[in-house]
Amino acid sequence: MKSRIDLVFLMTILTTVGFAQTKNFVSVNASMSDDELLKIAATITPTPQQLRWQRLELTGFIHFGINTFTGREWGEGKDDPKLFNPTALNAKQWVKACKDAGIRQIILTAKHHDGFCLWPSKFTEYSVKNSPWKDGKGDVVKEVADACKEFGLGFGVYLSPWDRNNASYGTEAYNEYFINQLTELLTQYGKVDEVWFDGANGEGSNGKKQVYDFERWYAHIRKLQPQAVIAVSGPDVRWVGTESGHGREEEWSVVPVGKKNKLNEGSQTKVDTPPAGDMTGQVLGSRSQLRDGDALKWYPAETDVSIRPGWFYHESEDKKVKTPEYLKEIYFHSVGRNGVLLLNIPPDKRGLLTDFDVAALKSWKGKLDAIFKVNLLKEAKGVGAVKKIKSLLDGNDATHLSFSMKGNDNVVEMSLKGEKTFNVLSLQENISVGQRVEKFILEYWVDGEWKKATEGTTIGFKRLLEFPAVTTTKVRLRIVSARLQPALAEIGLYFNKEDKK
Ligand code: FUL
User: Which residue ranges does the record assign to the Glycoside hydrolase family 29 N-terminal domain (predicted)?
Assistant: First the structure.
């Protein structure tokens, strides 16, 4: 009995120590050595909310509103609410098409910059309640939230801070208006998993200037929907810096933040202040940048892009829906570059996703399923850390493969089951302990020597690389540089038959 109590005691201590060592946000100062900084960067971890969000991989964006009926991208807030009149709106069709494509969470533009609300807000007349749709009794937010619940997808809301309709915009009263709208959205529709604040503002030099009370808004969200991540102009999820769908080759989820570099100014432990800096830099969290802020923070990238040229539906773009092949490339360059993809699919004037968009989604999913159907390492055998790899492949997080980084131990060699041809590498780090890998090389055995198949810098949650097909019986993965002992969560080799390179 005594020994069991000791064991429980010991485990409690270990767990506590473990927790104490994992942090989401750490202040740094000039007196810290390079080694210290690197260790901090390597042990910063996502919050449970960030981890859940990262694991979604694919999320969907729905831009729908008064612009759908006027053909604009940015309404001025003056269009008649009577224009909003979808003839066959069916949110279940949106959600099902997304789910069938592997999308696991949907964010709806509850209010875009024009200020028109897709729910019957008590605090403005500029909403669906003054439209002919369902005789003013309709509520798009409810229909989408309910459909997400029914199909088992996460649900998020986009609420534009910039509002071109509300008379109070530009005064302190607007912050109150915004809080009231948040309260409606966060209390009337069940669980909300993501709140998306757009940073766009086109007021110009003579336009209205609004000081947003971000801290109050964030605290309100944390209180009403603590499980939600707050994205983009928010403290949990960072805009990747482009709307092209192509993220960075080197993408760090730990980045310097604070007044010094203006990226997410302020301290997350004290206040959640909005990001204000340039997020478009080529790399944001490399070794040489770790001193650029007042703190280091887990602040992962979201890669948003529309399936069409515009964010809202325009009939003239029906033939410009991105091809499944291009969407596949976007997948590799977003999810496969340590990001979460936020793919916009805008419903048309009927309130339906068109056949063009649905067909593209379907065929995209088919392509990805075909590529990732067989992990050729599943049957690997024989040497090195194969036993551990098998546990990785079984998806058991707890048995992640760690490298010692001592001597040659940073190498894992795998024998394939006979000769195999492949052209896709998939790697994942166990980010629940941090992001650590800085450079890796995949080699294959040919003509009695090791040759490079592909190489990369960061891995993070997921790294996907395509390369000219190679045929071999043996491969090895070398972690050439890491901030701390790397911990991998997945290794996969696949063959994309359609890639003739
Ligand atoms: C931008 C907005 O201005 C676009 O209209 C769109 O909503 C996009 C997702 O974000 O900042």
Answer: 81-362
Contact (Cβ atoms closer than 8 angstroms) between residue 313 and residue 351: no
The letter for the amino acid at 182 is L
pLDDT in tens, 209-248: 999 998 899 999 999 999 999 999 898 999 999 999 999 9
Question: Which residues, 6 or more positions from 158, have their beta carbon under 8 angstroms from its beta carbon?
Answer: 61, 107, 108, 109, 110, 111, 112, 196, 198
pTM of the model: 0.92
Same domain, 136 and 235: yes
**In ligand 1, which atom is closest to the CA atom of 312?**
5
Return d(Cα 186, Cα 220) in angstroms, integer: 9
Domain assignment of residue 399, given as a range: 381-494
Write the CATH number for 323: 3.20.20.80
Residue 485 is encoded by which pair of tokens? Answer: 């002992």
Closest atom of ligand 1 to CA, residue 73: 5
Ligand 1 contacts (CB < 6 A) are 73, 198, 200, 304, 311
Tokens of 197: 């604040």
| CA-nearest residue, atom 7 of ligand 1 | 311
Decide the pairing of beta strands 487-494 and 411-429: antiparallel
Paired sense of beta strands 401-402 and 154-159, if any: unpaired
Contacts of 329 (CB under 8 A, 6+ apart): none
pLDDT tens-digit series, residues 412-422: 888 888 999 99
**Cβ atoms of residues 87 and 351 within 8 Å:** yes
